[in-house]
Amino acid sequence: MRRNRLLTVVAAVCATSALGLTAPQTAAADPGPTACSDTPSDLRPTLVYGDTGEAVRQAQCLSNMWGGEPPKLTLDGVYGIVMLKKIEWIQVCHGLQQSGVIEDRTWQVLYHPALDCYLPYPG
What is the DSSP letter of 67? Predict the structure, then answer.
């Protein structure tokens, strides 16, 4: 019985490794509502290209927590073209519609960034 259980576990591990299946990774630490600024985490209005203000600055800061190739955004509070492209990339990385609109689901992703995205950042 113990040997059968061990063989089952070993077979599952081997199959998972062979298929390249792994558990989704999330950031090791939640950035928290004050990691970027004093802007409260419940300030999550829908943002679109051209918007300005503190919520945009918070979204810029949160998007900068992503590692790798994406450019770091200037925290100027202006939702410009560079931010639009970065938000669209982040949305695709999480299986969201690539709209560039920062709404509830995109805010959730910004507050809980993935460690990595397997989609190269468009240069």
Answer: -
